[in-house]
Amino acid sequence: MNRKTFLNLAVGAGGAGFLASMVYPVLRFLLPAEQTEAQPDVLKVGTVKDFGDGASKILKFGRHPIIVIRDAKGGFHALSATCTHLDCIVQYKKDEDLVWCACHNGKYDLSGKNVSGPPPRPLDKYTVKVQGEDLLVLRETA
Amino acid sequence: MNGLLCSAFGWLDERFDVKGLVEFASHKRVPIHRGSVFYYAGGVCAFLFLLQVASGILLLMYYRVGTDASYESVRYIITKVPFGWLMRSVHSWGANLMVLFVFIHMLSVLFMKAYRKPRELTWVTGCALMGLAMAFGFSGYLLPWNELAYFATKVGTDIIGQVPLVGHFLLKIVRGGEEVTGATLSRFFGLHVAILPALLTSLMGVHLLFVQVQGMADTDKAKKTMPFFPNFILRDAILWLLVLNAVCALAVFLPWELGKKADALASAPAGIKPEWYFLAQYQFLKILPGKIGPVSGELVGIGVVSLAGLLFVAVPFWDRVLPEERRDRAVNLFGWVSLAVLAAMTVWGHLS
Amino acid sequence: MKLLAALLLAAAPAARAADSCVSCHAALDERNAAVIGSFARDIHREKGLSCAACHGGDPTKEDMAEAMDPAKGFAGKPEPAQMSQFCGKCHSDPKYMRRYNPSLPTDQAAKYATSNHGLRLKAGDTDVATCASCHPAHSIRPPKDPTSSVYVKNVPDTCARCHADSKKMAAHKLPATVVAEYKDSVHGKALLGRGDTAAPACNTCHGNHGAAPPGVAGIGQVCGMCHVNNMEFFKNSPMSKPWAKAGFHACATCHTAHAVQKPTSALLAGDAALCARCHASSSKPRAVAAALKAELDTGESSYRAAEAAIAQAEEKGMDMADARDALDGARTSMYQARTAVHTFSPEAVAKVAGEGKAASGKALQAAQDAVKDFRDRRVGLGLSTFVIAFLAGALYLKVRDLESGE
Question: SS3 string of B34-69?
Fold first, then answer.
């Protein structure tokens, strides 16, 4: 093998290796990730039909758990589901029509206001929008 | 294999006179002298632009525009998408290096007096390309919709509003309203991924065409030359590889931060500063007093900065009217003073 | 000072300028002047009441005998035994109180009569707390006012004025350590240390005007006001009946009444085990307690492991938001597992602790993945640097070769 062929071979091999090291990340980048979409600021929590009167659901809104409630009168509410006392997950108490934390008997009304027990602050509120049949939760903006 | 390539070449040549192009290219030579190293700067700019196009297109596969999605999608790219962190950091670091190399390219052309006749238009298109590169940087900076970008954009666009008579009108066009909002984000996105790429690509085409037609400026009257193809282009390639490696290393060791999501109601965090390539102008405007005579300090500042820019663009036209024996020294002085002022203002802006 | 106090009082509602109580007592001596001065900020004064509203007499008369004439209802300073009637004149009269604060209860005096303070007083012991012991006469503020002696954060110190006084308590054969114990307890630290005004003060468990120990029957209910699940679980557990029979305090037997500490699994088994007080060491209940402890301990250790791994990954600059979420879930589960101990059923504890361990495991995995990813990035960079260096070197030699031929 003469010098020229050797150099051509080296450049060819190097070029092939280089291409491979470029193509691999690009292909991996383009292959869909486990979670195939970015989580935006709007969350579809289901359809109106999913929520009977007095039904509630705990969901993840971005990184935070929220509780979506349909009260007995049919109104929708969305609140942060993390109790402001010691971060337990709250639940909807249909019979009392309020949000209740089982850890220390903290209670909030459906607007998130802490009404009894140890919670020091109200729950953060989210906006619920009904779009056709779909139920959307949005971050509350001032 | 070789036979197939030959017949493909023949097929193309029959239709497009490729032989003529090859013939032209093979005659192109690059002068060899002590300033030859600066001939590579332009190539690096072009390479970095291609890198920006490639990484930008990849980011577009996941990026979503909107105040409710931009930040979230960038966060998603850098945390969930495999190699997403790499693409985003390469794009951010590549942008900064591109602006840096455009500066180096431009200053070397200035000091080597390569802009002189017949290359005045190459210089002017180069200046325009630099302006576009900075516009790219400014518009791209906002797209992750994070706190720093939001306030930097607010401050940056405020300056546009200071322009007399049409300032407010321009501000509303740039921001898509009175304030920096989702409308601004949409505009900057459109600018960044459609308008600027089209403008920069076409202008770069013209710029390169000029260079190819006129050849490399040989201001040193060099005795030795080397062929452009393949010698120079191979040397170019080596440098490009090294630059690419440097960008990747920066992405791994100094990943570009995302920070907190922009919040229009939050108070501006301390130390809001524009990107380093706007810092000199920013600092200059900041140190001016509120009023200079009857006009506002900012207006004077904008005037001075615009005038300096214009002086820079017009170098090929004013340097020829100077007496020949003092021409080089005058341009060198202009270059060094500009560089010193820019550097001093940038450092000052960085430290303050 | 005297003058200032007199001025302050006189200046309030201008019409009451001629109050002989104020003008005389402010000039009497330091102590009297101080009383007049502090009364300016008393809630009763703010509502427009004057000295005579409580003490009777006629403040329009300059002459002392006339002004302090018992025939005109002058009562002077009430004796402890009369105190609740003295305040109750108004505070037990719903019709009268409606004028000032329609929502204020009017049963304080009745409740006081049922309190240990009231009962002892009735039995002839005058060394007891009466109204003015907690609501200092002449500087009474409503309980919502942070400067009030009965503001939730000030209650422990108000009770401590007597209940931490060992001489006083010894006379009544009561311990003087309760307030100190409380201040060192989870509740005291939450209220006084963290400033969590929702945490219980003395009166939350003992009542205000009807203050008394909740008693064996009541203590579970009282704790259950906040610790709902703990109470429910315990009531339905096999422990509940034997305890009632043995006359144990439902909660206080293990957790104490005032010195409640953050419970650890060490209460269940080992040297500090509370179960060992009744159950023999090789008995079945001790095995159950050991199983409960094991569940809590493994849950706790997997939580700690995940937490440490996340901290390590974050130090390397990796985004650990999702892992932190999983860890938050684990924390809630471990919280529930500790509550479930009151069922005394290892299965019930294992169920929630298992959820916690699964969440901790997920968080740990995410953190380890992130650390691995961090290393992979460097390895990847090293590999591509090698490839690029090789190609660049080959190209350089190629160029040299080309140029040597020319």
Answer: CCHHHHHHHHHHHHHHHHHHHHHHHHHCCCCCCCCC
Q: Which residue of A28, A39, A62 is in closest CB contact with B82? A: A28
pTM above 0.95, yes or no: no
pLDDT digits (tens, 9 = 90+) for C149-190: 999 999 999 999 999 999 999 999 999 999 999 999 999 999
pLDDT value of residue C14? 41
Contacts of C319 in chain B (CB under 8 A): 75, 78-79
Distance of CA B146 to the CA centre of its chain: 22
Q: Rounded CA gap, C211 and C178, in Å?
A: 14
Domain extents in chain B: 33-280
The HSE-up count of residue A97 (CA atoms within 13 Å, CB side) is 8
pLDDT at C2 over 80: no
The residue ranges of DSSP E strands in chain A, in sequence order, are 42-47, 56-61, 64-70, 76-80, 91-93, 98-101, 106-108, 114-116, 125-131, 134-139
- Tell me which chain A residue has its CA closest to the CA of residue B263: A141
Nearest CA in chain B to A32: B81
Which residues in chain B have Cβ-Cβ distances shorter than 8 Å to C385? 245, 248-249
Chain A / chain C CB contacts < 8 angstroms: 71
Do the Cβ atoms of A29 and B58 come within 8 Å? Answer: yes
Bridge-partner residues for A93, per DSSP?
A98
pLDDT band for B262, please (50, 70, 90 cuts). Answer: confident
CATH architecture of B33-280: Up-down Bundle (1.20)
- With an 8 Å Cβ cutoff, are B226 and C381 in contact? no
pLDDT of residue C11: 47
Residue B227 above 90 pLDDT?
no
Which two structure tokens, joined as six digits, stand for A99? 């949000």
Q: Which residue of C has its CA nearest to A5?
A: C398
Task: Name residue B138's amino acid.
Answer: F
pLDDT tens figures, B236-260: 999 999 999 999 999 999 988 888 8
The whole-angstrom distance between C300's CA and the closest CA on chain B is 28
Return the amino acid letter for C37: G
- What gap in Å lies between CA B313 and CA A69, rounded to an integer? 64
